[in-house]
Amino acid sequence: SQTIHQWPATLVQPVGSPLSLECTVEGTSNPNLYWYRQAAGRGLQLLFYSVGIGQISSEVPQNLSASRPQDRQFILSSKKLLLSDSGFYLCAWVIQGGQTEAFFGQGTRLTVV
Amino acid sequence: GNSVTQMEGPVTLSEEAFLTINCTYTATGYPSLFWYVQYPGEGLQLLLKATKADDKGSNKGFEATYRKETTSFHLEKGSVQVSDSAVYFCALAWAGTALIFGKGTTLSVSS
User: Fold this and answer.
1) Does A7 contact chain B (CB < 8 Å)?
2) Residue of A nearest to B93 (CA)
């Protein structure tokens, strides 16, 4: 079956520290992968998407970066976290075409202190 | 560009009350429309979807009809339960784009 894993579930990091969130997908090949951030009162903001290994598109300029080192792996990173990076981060796998649908990981609650 | 607008919450209801959460969209062409639900502390789950005009998506007692003439996809349930308390997101997807979400509506149901 098709599943998506995201970790860690919660993270508390000091300002200026690095960040690495990992997302992996099982049961499919060459998936379209996405990182969203959910901030209070702002809904879901698309941060990055990737249609293949090494292919990253950025939707919003920010303090974050993304990488796709393997077909089913998508990583969200930062070299130096800001307070404003706090939020709930969601990885998603989107099946596109006639039956477009998205499957989400469980999310990572990031608190920058 | 494509966008989704849904009613702001929070929506507070008593158990067995009727629920409507409004959602309208702006898109070129004919997007697919979705409702996702997020229970406390969890990721998003697909609740229902509709892929063409006049389609009705339904699941767990929730329904939404794709109305092209009013560009709407309102979520309804005849009798809500405490367990329906969650955040509900309306979304659209079109021609290979990522899903575009509304800001979410928080529903709180009390017994």
Assistant:
1) no
2) A100
Q: How many Cα atoms sit within 13 Å of B62 on the Cβ side?
A: 23
CA-based nearest residue in chain B for residue A99: B51
Q: Is the peptide bond before B10 cis (omega within 30 degrees of 0)?
A: yes
> Per the omega criterion (within 30 degrees of 0), is the bond before A18 cis?
no
Name the residue among B32, B43, B102 with its Cβ closest to that of A105.
B43
Residues B93 and A95: their CA atoms lie apart, in Å, by 10
Between chains, do B98 and A34 touch, taking CB under 8 Å as contact? Answer: yes
Answer for the pair A26, A91: CB distance below 8 angstroms, yes or no.
no
Contact between B43 and A106 under an 8 Å Cβ cutoff? The reply is yes
A83: helix, strand or coil: helix
Structure tokens at A9: 């579930």
Tokens of B36: 């996702």
Segment A9-57, tens digit of pLDDT: 899 999 999 999 999 999 888 888 999 998 776 678 889 989 899 999 8
3-state secondary structure of B83: helix
CA distance B45 to B10: 20
Q: How far is CA A25 from the centre of its chain?
A: 12
* A101 compared with B88, residue with greater pLDDT: B88
| Chain pair A-B, CB pairs under 8 angstroms | 56
Q: With beta carbons less than 8 A apart as the criterion, state whether A64 and A77 touch.
A: yes
